[in-house]
Amino acid sequence: MLRIAIPTILAFTLLAGCGGSSHQQRAADSGTVVPVKTIDVAAADWPLVYEASGTVRARTAAAISSKMMGYVRQVHFQIGDRVREGQLLIELDSRDADAQLQQAESAAAEAREALQEVESAIAAAKANLELAQATYRRMQDLFEKKSVSNQEFDEASARLKAAQAAYDIATAKRRQVAARIEQAKAAVEAARVMRSYARISAPFDGVVTEKRVEPGNLAAPGVPLASIEQQGALRLEVSVEESRLGEIRLGQPAAVRLDAVDRQIDARVGEIVPAVDPASRTALVKLDLPPLPQLRSGMFGRAAFPAGSRKVTAVPTAAIRQQGQLRSVFVVAGGIARARLVTLGSEYQGSREVLSGLSAGEKIVSPLPASLADGARVEVQP
């Protein structure tokens, strides 16, 4: 392959030289002087960058799943739908939960009725106790006056103790029934919560990015049914070599390039995952992206982090002429513009790095007139 490429380049060069000589001869014969502006070729400080690639992901995403086992009755969304917080997404068959709720409500009603019976029993026991207390007081007065026998006084005392015990039992039963009522209320609340699990809603405003459920499917607890991502909060997650982690800080700016978006995006480091993957020896760095309508989760992107600077020879892109795979600049010496092939490197802020073909101190034409030809006479203007 190399043996073919070298002769081809030489052929192009020779053809360009022949054409240039002919054009140069015509320019020299015509005596036309082309006004141009020149710049001095000099070394410049160019920033060094470390580039890491990764994937755009949502800052906030949720996998929607069920908390109960049940068959899916209805699905109210499609992939790509925008949903609001609390919007109904999925309905499950809730007949079992409805039956449990009805059973709990029946138990609560029974406990409330039992409380009414206990209250009646307490009222009767209280009346008996009050009667026994009054009788005891009268018998006590008569006993002190020796008007009743010991037997009669003992019987009155026994009836008082029995009435007091019956009243205590009735009040204790009321406490038991009150506890049953509280348990029944808790059971009703639990049954209502369980029934609410049959209606699955969106946890926040977002976009449905995945759908794994259809009516008739059996939903199981913890099994994802859909995925939702919050819009306007995207990050580029890139893998950074562990040797470079010391150069990256929270809040550090970085230039992001996405293949699907034809522009540079200014981003900042929002999070650095402290753990390093032992297999790849990289750590995850998350960069906050601005809310652009073209951004989508899953896009491939690259992040360029500043890593110092280096000295390079650079020329403006306006001074470069490209013909096929050949790139050249025009060097001015003695009032004549000579085309010179150059090898170019990276681009930065409207300039290209020159790897070979130019030396510092030479003068080149910039910007480059469209009519300028190799060998043309030029007049340098300020």
Description:
It is built from 3 helices and 23 strands. By secondary structure, it is an alpha+beta fold. It is rod-shaped and about 160 Å long.
Helix/strand layout:
Blueprint (H helix, E strand, L loop, with lengths): L1 H29 L2 E4 L1 E3 L2 E16 L2 E5 L4 E6 L6 E2 L4 E5 L2 H50 L5 H47 L2 E3 L4 E6 L6 E2 L4 E6 L4 E8 L11 E6 L2 E17 L4 E7 L11 E17 L4 E3 L2 E8 L2 E6 L1 E6 L2 E6 L6 E3 L10 E5 L2
Helix pairs in contact: 2-3
Defining traits:
alpha+beta, OB fold (Dihydrolipoamide Acetyltransferase, E2P), six-stranded antiparallel beta barrel, 33% helix, Elongation Factor Tu (Ef-tu), domain 3, 382 residues, 3 helices, conserved putative lor/sdh protein from methanococcus maripaludis s2 fold
Briefly, what is this?
With 382 residues, the protein is an alpha+beta fold.
Described by strand count, sense and barrel closure, the largest sheet is: 6 strands, antiparallel, barrel
CATH topology of the largest domain: Helix Hairpins
Shape, per Cα inertia axes:
rod-shaped
Q: Number of folding domains?
A: 4
Name of the CATH superfamily of the largest domain: Helix hairpin bin
Number of strands: 23
Q: Which range does the strand content fall in?
A: 35-45%
Query: Which regions are unreliable across 5 or more consecutive residues at pLDDT < 50?
Result: 1-30
Quaternary organisation: single chain
Radius of gyration, taken over Cα atoms and rounded to an integer in Å: 46 Å
Q: Class by helix and strand content?
A: alpha+beta
Number of helices: 3
First CA to last CA: what distance? Answer: 48 Å
